[in-house]
């Protein structure tokens, strides 16, 4: 965090002398407990709040990057590098990965353009370029670009966000896939033929609505058999660059506790007993990651890769001739079944871990409309 003081003029009679401020950036303490500070004196054309804020921001970023910033020659590529280093690194692992991947096309297309020369037409041309490449992801990549440019405005490196005025491309809304009640019954009837671990994982998704990462990151202490609840507090993350696994926060960074069906919890209890037996049998060959007492791991205790459960699920339903849906669609199936039974939308939001009830309503709006029509029909039949 930086502070500043306004310095007195060297020669008060000299009207041409520019006003100056001294900026001090606090960088914490060294190993001896001494404050670490960086200071800089800056001459400004005026002492307006905007001019002072811009000078402080440039100094803070320069200190963070251990070098001065040449704002006149800063390119789009330079701006993205600043954004990644000073903002994105503070986000969750999944957000970092998504932002890095989806800003790359903009860097390739706009990278050498000076930031101060960026115009709306450049953003429009970039959007048209994306649409030709991959229509499905255009709006998300444009959103990431807009978020990055907005941060440049906040840091006073841009006067305006030229991406704000560019309208989204019209895209066909992808229909949600899920199983209806009869299809769920077919799946459950076939599950006894699945491998025990995958059978439990599929049932977990159906009965809880949990995300695949949350199921993969479920640990022994997250399960309470006394009141048949599961505490969802983290998600399993695979850092592919370093080939390591760790437990990160859930998508909305909140812990939630959800009740589960009694018959499922009885099956889960038996399954966990078998997992513990396998662990004892493995002995020194057990490869479980320290601090991760995972329920659904490989036979030697090591975490599964990202797509292991999804791949098995797809192979299983294809082998038995069931309608093809993704593993994630089991989450939608869970929500749709609850809605069809008249469960309150707030309860569904809490089970799914959505950040707001608006997100739940928007995601399942087609189903809530069906329930509304059904309610009107029932009301009509009453009179």
TrEMBL record:
Domain (Core-binding (CB)) spans: 74-153
Q: Which residues form the Tyr recombinase domain?
A: 174-377
- Which InterPro entries does the record associate with it? CB, DNA_brk_join_enz, Integrase-like_cat_sf, Integrase_catalytic, Integrase_recombinase_N, Integrase_SAM-like_N, Tyrosine_recombinase_XerCD
Q: Does the keyword DNA-binding apply?
A: yes
Superkingdom, according to UniProt? Bacteria
Q: List, in alphabetical order, the GO biological process terms annotated in this UniProt record.
A: DNA integration; DNA recombination
The UniProt keywords, alphabetically, are: DNA integration, DNA recombination, DNA-binding
Does the UniProt entry include the keyword DNA-binding? Answer: yes
Q: What family, per the record?
A: Belongs to the 'phage' integrase family.
What is the protein named? Answer: Tyr recombinase domain-containing protein
State the organism named in the record.
Domibacillus aminovorans
